[in-house]
Amino acid sequence: MRGFDFVAPTSISAALKAAKGRSTKFIAGGTNFLPDLRHQHDGPAKVVIDLMRISGLQGISSSKGVVKMGALTTMTDFLTDKTILREAPILAAMSEKFAGPIIRNRATVAGNIIDGGPAADAVPPLLALKAKVRLASEKGRRTVDLDKFLTGYRQTAIRSDELITAVTFPSPGRNHKWGYYKLARRNAMAITVVGVAVVLKVRRKKVEEAGISLGSVTAAPIRCYEAEKILEGNVVDLELAQKAAEACAAVAAPIDDIRASAEYRKLMCEVLPRRLICQALDISQDND
Amino acid sequence: MKMATTSKSKRTGKSSTPAYVPPKKLPISFSVNGQEVNTEAPAHTSLLYLLRDLGFTEVKNGCEAGDCGACTILLDGLAMNACCALGVQAEGREITTVKGIGTVDNLHPIQVKFIEHGAIQCGFCTPGMIVAAKELLDLTPNPSRHEIKAGIAGNLCRCTGYVKIIDAIEAAAEELSSKKGKGK
What we know:
The complex is a heterodimer.
Chain A: E1 5-7, H1 12-19, E2 24-27, H2 33-37, E3 47-50, E4 60-63, E5 66-70, H3 75-80, H4 82-87, H5 89-97, H6 101-104, H7 109-114, H8 123-128, E6 132-137, E7 140-145, H9 146-149, E8 150-152, E9 155-156, E10 163-170, E11 177-183, E12 194-203, E13 206-215, E14 222-223, H10 225-231, E15 234-235, H11 238-251, H12 262-281
Parallel strand pairs in A: 1-3, 2-3
Antiparallel strand pairs in A: 4-5, 5-10, 6-7, 6-10, 8-9, 11-12, 12-13, 13-14, 13-15
Helix pairs in contact in A: 10-11, 11-12
Chain B: H1 4-12, E1 25-32, E2 35-42, H2 47-53, E3 72-75, E4 78-81, E5 94-96, H3 98-101, H4 109-116, H5 126-139, H6 145-151, H7 163-183
Parallel strand pairs in B: 1-5
Antiparallel strand pairs in B: 1-2, 3-4, 3-5
Helix pairs in contact in B: 4-7
């Protein structure tokens, strides 16, 4: 393989400076980068920049109703961090199903997003939480909604001179309802067949705001805007949950592969959202 | 026979294949099981290859994709797949392999229980499995059987069917926590 230069800066500005004018690959935990590297005859880039030593990309905090996770937040952090467990337990529920414990120690939230895979497990819960991606380049900083950031199969809106510094989401509030399900062939180390995340803000039995998303059934995980609209402003019953679930299935465009057929995935895109909405809102489901 | 390629390259002044330039080696220093290591390697060398080339062959090469856990090590106390990091990323870090947990002359209770319970068959997964079990018991001293299964979910074993491994870790947890109790 063709070699590359390597630097491990300790600040965001030093990382951006090192990337200037060169083909660059930023890496962190390496859980996608190293396995991919074995198949890249020409090497990944002229320079590989290790972000793991940048303290400015670490830490989870919450202020003024916004939770901020540094780009280097690992899946293990999702399972142990008190802010996450209090503000968005859906991320912990997701992390429990994410690969295995050893991978979770290294896999970062920004890495999972930027890899752009359709089965990126951290993405559906973040979409349902209406997360935003903070980006920095030498020209300045900008924030992009996660659903706009993911533009296609392994494609994102990141520019070649940019790097993800943090992922944020508005706190859904102490009393929000949520549900997460990863349908896969095994309990661990599995690539998701269908991933579903539901986050509901409820006030006086009415769903005020809904976030519903699907993973592994489109080129990149997606939010189900129609389904969200069906629930919002309503006291949800089984019939409405079913309608929302059908709207979820309508946007799913799954493929056949070795893990499941497109037909099965499509069906599960209706069953699982309905089940999660009903469980979150304590609606009894007779036919499930 | 005409040497067409030779004349072509004479005309353009370029040879058809660029000369091979070996990748630049970078200095790397870290510690393995308390022993200082100063070495050098090209940036693309994985931590797994670097460790094995230095003689730490207890770190096994299974899948090189983060799937099997045979190369599990502790990096600054955190379990990880050595195949999923670049060697240069280990600069200044402390690495622990299975030999840093216990040696043949001085076995760790986890290793003793693995032997007693027949949790080792071909032995290939064992170094990684024991490192993963060590982290699990450091974080969760009295795990349930479900927690043990979840704790070694990233480590594949194709021989035992896992039952004996789970038994061994359960027994090791009991022994370690009773030892701790006596110490107090």
